[in-house]
Amino acid sequence: MKKSLFIFAPALLLLLGFNACKEKESDPPPAMPNLYTRVGGTEMIADPVNSGMMIEKGRLTLRSVVDSSILVIASDAQMAPYFAALLSEVTAGNTTGLSTLSRSFTNFMSTATGSTNPAYAYNGMSMKDAHDPAKSNRMGLKTDEADFNRFVGHIGTGLAKNGVTAANNAALVNDLVALLNTTKADIVQR
Amino acid sequence: MSWITKVFLAAGTLALVFVVVLGLHIYKATHKADQNIPVRLMGRIDFEEKPDSVSALRIRGMVKSFEGVQTTYFNIEDGILVFVYDGRKQTGINIFTKLQAQVPFKVSRYEVPEEFATKGCPAMAEDQGWKGKLVQLISSL
């Protein structure tokens, strides 16, 4: 009896070990949460800008990045033909341009990253139509690849101003840049 | 229909209305998009001579200390300072004048060329679809 135990015990252990490995191999990889969840998700927190209002954490992160990026973009002389109106509203008395850009672009980013909150939904024109001067009267000129890449770079600066860099979170930066690049074919029209 | 049935029917309808109103109120309080803040304005000041990083930092601090200024950003490479301020408390001209008087640099206030004034990123236009209008209508209730 003892002898048979000595013979079968290692075999049993081997079998168990093999099965354990087999189980591990067949386990599906954990699903990667969507980008919206990774930047904060749907947890409601106090909005630091709008007193007394609540905001989803993911939305707040995206809005902060958008607002930081807008400053970088507005200070870039090369981008002036696309974004000068941001500054013109100061003299023209129309004060909604900055807030509208912030909200609309944040809505777009929220929807694109996976937000399902209807209050944050982007309901504007398609990217292709919105960037076609023939269909969107706000587009003065078609965008070229160099300017698009410059724009994406400014978003990267906006991310860095909010503490997210390729050095400390390469996966998030890469995924957000990849997301922006999915719009490239529609936006670059010359 | 007996009077008891009528009373129950009226009370039930009233309760339903209260529940719907409460539900809408809770939804509005927790899901309302961040407010459009029409008082947030942006200004730009160009520096003819580009300041070094230390001077740029000092200038940013100076502008940030002006009443109503919320954020600043200095593109040192191009000598461009941009800032966001509360239009209820401050004006772009005032910020420019104050800065001009305090820095040893030749500066100019950026004026948008006419051809750019009504053009630009389409994201600055309001949502144009029916869904956008509906969301805006509900949000404004």
- Helical proportion of chain B, percent range: 40-55%
Number of β-strand runs of chain B: 4
* Global shape of chain A: globular
Distance between the termini of chain A: 84 Å
Low-confidence stretches of chain B: none
The value of Rg of chain A in angstroms is 25 Å
Note the run of SSEs of chain B as H and E: HEHEEHEHH
Instruction: Please give the oligomerization state of what you see.
Output: heterodimer
Largest interface: A-B, 60 and 51 residues
Please report the number of helical segments of chain A.
10
- Secondary structure tally: strands of chain A: 2
Distance between the termini of chain B: 38 Å
Structural class of chain B: alpha+beta
How many strands, what sense, and barrel or not for the largest sheet of chain B? 4 strands, antiparallel
Poorly predicted ranges of chain A? 90-95
Q: What helical percentage do the residues of chain A reach?
A: 55-70%
Specify Rg of chain B, calculated over alpha carbons: 26 Å
SSE layout:
The complex is a heterodimer of chains A (190) and B (141).
Chain A lengths: L1 H25 L8 H4 L5 E3 L7 E3 H18 L5 H4 L1 H8 L4 H17 L13 H4 L14 H17 L4 H16 L2 H4 L3
Antiparallel strand pairs in A: 1-2
Helix pairs in contact in A: 3-6, 3-8, 8-9
Chain B lengths: L2 H29 L8 E8 L5 H13 L3 E7 L4 E7 L5 H11 L4 E3 L4 H4 L12 H10 L2
Antiparallel strand pairs in B: 1-3, 1-4, 2-3
